[in-house]
């Protein structure tokens, strides 16, 4: 009997894991944004001293893991599992970092939802008694994502206003079986939702239906209301996706606007010319492990619904005319049990 399951898609943890540390590395553009003071490391060069952007991204992933270990005063040998992924084919940023880290590794691909996918699975491992320490980590890079999913940067293709700017960065979280919190108390696993969007330059519209579905399911499964949360935060809807999400929820009787923020909107200033906002697997990861954890630790927010969203496309699927499936995974972060 699934005694920890609520409703159709949600888990309530009996032994909620504690978030004991978060680590962040971001690129130069992110370091010029409004959240600059909350990042642990800001690169001055997005090649990070490497010969390619892909190598730079993998190095960011590895260094984010080492950084969060140092903040938690732990060694890599203390970690039971690393759960990590990124946006690149065969998740090479995470896998190539893991070969250097020498730690049991589950490679994940949830596109930009990977951060909360890793935190959900990590919380399940700890709650189930299979681990004491878990690292969930992910990365992305503007230049690696653009040339894989869209166009070679050398072509200088003009970006439409619905497009988003992939965050260059990496974020890592350590979950522990013991600690003073904040805690992951619930997790709602999303379904793949696809309403037919085919434009790879409009990720917000592709992901919004999945985001709405997960939020509605979360409230139905748990019995929580909007008022139970201090903040409801999505990973990278951007301005276009935000408006669609709010409209979809409002039609179903959920008005979350007064409690709502999006990582992709918060990480950049409008003057930085990112069009609809930020995106990428690192978008939610660096905002969560930087700004949001700081706000929670300082008592600004006591209970947060945090949800990373992903567009599950590939270059092959786009070239074959496929639409873009979306997914969203949500976790409840609470300072109390």
TrEMBL record:
InterPro entries: SpoVAD, SpoVAD_sf, Thiolase-like. GO terms for molecular function: acyltransferase activity. Coiled coil: none annotated. Pfam families: SpoVAD. This is Stage V sporulation AD family protein. It comes from Thermoanaerobacter pseudethanolicus (strain ATCC 33223 / 39E) (Clostridium thermohydrosulfuricum).
């Amino acid at each position: 009997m699934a005694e920890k399951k609520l409703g159709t898609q949600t888990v309530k943890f009996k032994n909620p894991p504690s978030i004991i540390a978060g680590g962040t590395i971001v690129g130069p553009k992110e370091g010029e944004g409004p959240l600059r003071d909350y990042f642990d490391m800001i690169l001055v060069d997005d090649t990070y001293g490497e010969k390619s952007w892909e190598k730079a991204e993998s190095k960011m992933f590895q260094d984010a893991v080492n950084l969060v270990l140092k903040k938690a005063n732990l060694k890599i040998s203390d970690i039971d599992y690393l759960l990590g992924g990124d946006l690149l084919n065969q998740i090479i940023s995470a896998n190539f970092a893991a070969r250097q880290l020498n730690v049991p590794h589950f490679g994940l691909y949830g596109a930009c939802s990977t951060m909360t996918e890793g935190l959900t699975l990590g919380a399940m491992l700890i709650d189930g008694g299979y681990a004491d320490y878990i690292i969930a980590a992910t990365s992305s890079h503007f230049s690696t994502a653009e040339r894989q999913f869209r166009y070679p940067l050398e072509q200088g293709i003009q970006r439409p206003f619905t497009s988003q700017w992939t965050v260059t960065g990496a974020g890592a979280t350590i979950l522990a079986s013991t600690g003073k919190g904040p805690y992951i108390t619930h997790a709602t696993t999303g379904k793949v939702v696809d309403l037919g969007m085919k434009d790879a330059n409009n990720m917000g519209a592709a992901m919004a239906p999945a985001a709405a579905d997960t939020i509605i399911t979360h409230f139905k499964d748990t019995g929580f209301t909007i008022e139970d949360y201090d903040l409801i935060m999505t990973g990278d809807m951007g301005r276009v996706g935000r408006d669609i999400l709010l409209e979809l929820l409002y039609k179903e009787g959920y008005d979350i606007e007064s409690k709502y923020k999006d990582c992709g909107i918060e990480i950049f200033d409008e003057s930085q010319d990112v069009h609809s906002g930020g995106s990428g697997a690192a978008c939610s990861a660096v905002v969560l492990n930087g700004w949001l954890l700081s706000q929670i630790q300082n008592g600004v927010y006591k209970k947060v619904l945090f949800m990373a969203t992903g567009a599950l496309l590939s270059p092959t699927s786009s070239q074959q005319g496929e639409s873009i499936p979306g997914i969203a995974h949500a976790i409840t972060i609470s300072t109390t049990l």
